[in-house]
Amino acid sequence: MKKRGAALLCCLTLLMSLISCGTQTKRQEGLALYYASDLSASRGGDAIAPVYVDADKQASVTDQAVALLRMMMEGAQAGKLHSPIPEGTELLSCEVENGIAKVDFSGAYGQLSGMDLTVADYCVTLTLTQLKGVFTVYITVNGKELTYRDTNSFMASDALLSSTEDIVRSVAVTLYFPDKNTRVLTGEDRLLTWYEGQSQADDILAALLAGPASDSLTTVVPAEFKIASVRIDDRICYVNLPQSDLSLLPEDLATQQMILRSLVNSLCSVDGIDGVQLLLAGSVRNTTFGKIDISRPFTATE
User: Fold this and answer.
1) Helix, strand, or coil (residue 260)
2) How many CB atoms lie under 10 A from the CB of residue 151?
3) Ramachandran angles phi, psi of 164, nearest 5°
4) Phi, psi values for residue 266, rounded to 5°
5) pLDDT score of 14 more than 50
6) Which residues make beta-bridge pairs with 52?
7) Buried b vs exposed e over 48-71: b needs ≥16 C-beta within 10 Å?
8) Which residues contact 267 (CB under 8 A, 6 or more apart)?
9) What percent of the chain has pLDDT over 70?
10) CA angle 182-178-237, nearest 5°?
11) pLDDT at position 53
């Protein structure tokens, strides 16, 4: 967790204690909008609680993010919940790129301070990081960072603010991308949050496809790659790819090897995975990944 100022630390400590006393809510269909609770009217409840809404999951990630924020700004329609975003705030822009959702609010958002600001920041963060490929939320006001806080970038797990069952856990991983100039595979540390119904392998692949945060790195896994199924048995991660995905591979062996190493090294960065066995259409016998024999598991140390 990144360092905060003393006042913010006090707010986070209070917020975490309030949430830890709350009851958990069962995950429902749809996407969650996170709202602030009226703690004065409901003592002992969660400081942040979700309301589930229907969303167009076929839309782009940026369009989904904009839609969720606009619904959040309209306010909750049920219970003793309210939008943490001040009335009169406008969403000036929202763009998702390289795993980062960049959100710019109008000046009214900058009037928040202390615990109110912390709750608002993490309601926005928890809402947006549930979208596939969004790992960090960067919040500005009128295009500028708020100078009275130590960071303007947030991840769902920074303060472990939610006790709801839909967030399973947050895990540190290292994603591997080639350097744009040297083509050397380079690790980039991330903290990914898994939701109920998602697998680690699915989320790691989504993060690899979303691309690196660093401008010096680039993605190498073909954008249309999919995982048909995944399981972990005796510390080996079995990743089943559709046979049709082979047509997406580049012709040259070096790039095929880099794609394989990007997948294997990234998956093996998760505690509990020592090796990766790629399957094609569920088969492991006499199988090749382009020009590479994948009839045996690969480890990160090879």
Assistant:
1) helix
2) 15
3) -75, 155
4) -65, -45
5) no
6) 32
7) bbbbebebeeeeebbebbbbbbeb
8) 200, 201, 204, 237, 239, 273, 276
9) 76
10) 145
11) 86
CA distance 88 to 90: 6
CA distance 21 to 30: 26
Task: Give the bridge partners for 171, in sequence order.
Answer: 192
CA distance 21 to 163: 9
> What gap in Å lies between CA 188 and CA 186, rounded to an integer?
7
In this model, does residue 2 exceed pLDDT 70?
no
What digits encode the pLDDT tens for the residues 42-74?
A: 433 456 788 888 877 788 999 999 999 999 998
Helix (H) or strand (E) holding 11, with range, is helix 6-20
Which residues lie closer than 8 Å to 38 by C-beta, 6 or more apart?
80, 81, 82
Question: Can you say whether the dihedral through the CA atoms of 129, 132, 134, 140 is positive or negative?
Answer: negative
> 94: which strand partners?
103
What Å distances lie between residue 224 and 2, 244, 245, 272, 277, CA to CA? 34, 10, 8, 27, 20
